[in-house]
Amino acid sequence: MFEISEHCFDLIFAFDEIVALGYRENVNLAQIRTFTEMDSHEEKVFRAVRETQEREAKAEMRRKAKELQQARRDAERSGKKVPAFGGFGSAGMTSVSSGTIITDTMVEQEKPKITPAPARATGPSKALKLGAKGKEVDNFVDKLKSEGETIMASTGKRGSEVSKALPPPANVESVHLRVEEKISLTCGRDGGLQNMEVLGMVTLRVSDDKNGRIRLIINNNDNKGLQLQTHPNVDKKLFTAESVIGLKNPEKSFPLNNDVGVLKWRLQTTDESLTPLTINCWPSESGSGCDVNIEYELQEESLELNDVVISIPVPSGVGAPVIGDLDGEYKHDSRRNVLEWNLPLIDANNKTGSLEFSIAGQPNDFFPINVSFVSKRNYCDIQVAKVTYVDGDGPVRFSSETSFVVDKYEIL
């Protein structure tokens, strides 16, 4: 009886093949077995959609877990809130002439405290909240781990987007400086720079009140026609005359445990000779599709570009490209229909390279091409050479990090 109840639906389907409108169908046992075991296309589609939804839900859970873990670590590192210092912060560092705000990514702003919502009358809320010593986050991660998911520690950057992040320096002094630049570039497939913009900033962080009254000596060896701007609380006359960043009131100190953008610059040009890395793509039609030749050339030889990825779109549904000559490595992402050309390092000793491949398609199928990279050397040659005390001009130990990343690098 148990076996009959367990297979009741199978029996119903079998009888449905035998009897139709009260009359017996002219079928044999082999045909009935074939009909009942026949694959259903709709069922396959449904299962595929459901599996895709489950994968997306798990990916979203992993992303949320990473964000919550990072938010918890940021909250622990920030400690108690430090009062604002005479306008230092994001409000004073917006661009004047262009209207462009460069503090969104270049300066870590003070994170607002999150006030948990009052509990409902029916009982405490079980939603994930920040500020509860991370217990909810840990429980959420443990649930993911119990389902067989591997949780990686977040680095604070979204891996999808703009660019990878350089690792932080190993030794950070009580006076730490960040020299950061990002580039946004668009050029045509036939040559010609449509627009290039480089935004840069020097950010100061002081973690010891003994080193609050200091000055920064800047080395500016750039000859590209930059627009420089200091913070309103910085002595502009001193910077213009001696390239020294100090407060207007030398008796005051820089704010403690707070990132302060003290100097920023902007370069906007259509001069093709200033393009740091040129990309030339030559697709030519053949009898079976297209033969594509791509080459790069580093024009700014003082740069060292790491983790360079040149992403070339390829037609869908035509199979993988056939790779010919290649410098570096490649990866064909059939899901996104992209051929990724990976180069670990481009510098003066490795300033040119090429890739050849063949695939069915038209010349327009291989644009736009996108480029991403990171660099420990900035494009505009601006660095902090020395840090001194206001009184006595004695040297101050400091650490620094430099990064040059991509916001957008596109060949249309």
UniProtKB/TrEMBL annotation:
GO biological process assignments: endoplasmic reticulum to Golgi vesicle-mediated transport; Golgi localization; protein transport; retrograde vesicle-mediated transport, Golgi to endoplasmic reticulum
Assembly and interaction partners: Oligomeric complex that consists of at least the alpha, beta, beta', gamma, delta, epsilon and zeta subunits.
Cellular compartments annotated: Cytoplasm; Cytoplasmic vesicle, COPI-coated vesicle membrane; Golgi apparatus membrane
Domain MHD stretches: 172-412
PROSITE patterns, A to Z: MHD (PS51072)
Family membership noted in the UniProt record: Belongs to the adaptor complexes medium subunit family. Delta-COP subfamily.
Coiled-coil intervals, chain numbering: 49-81
Species assigned in the record: Gouania willdenowi
GO annotation, cellular component aspect: COPI vesicle coat; Golgi membrane
Function: The coatomer is a cytosolic protein complex that binds to dilysine motifs and reversibly associates with Golgi non-clathrin-coated vesicles, which further mediate biosynthetic protein transport from the ER, via the Golgi up to the trans Golgi network. Coatomer complex is required for budding from Golgi membranes, and is essential for the retrograde Golgi-to-ER transport of dilysine-tagged proteins.
Entry keyword Transport: yes
Membrane-topology annotation of the record: Peripheral membrane protein
Alphabetic keyword roster: Coiled coil, Cytoplasm, Cytoplasmic vesicle, ER-Golgi transport, Golgi apparatus, Membrane, Protein transport, Transport
CDD domains linked: AP_delta-COPI_MHD (cd09254)
Protein name: Coatomer subunit delta
InterPro entries, per database record: AP2_Mu_C_sf, Coatomer_dsu, MHD
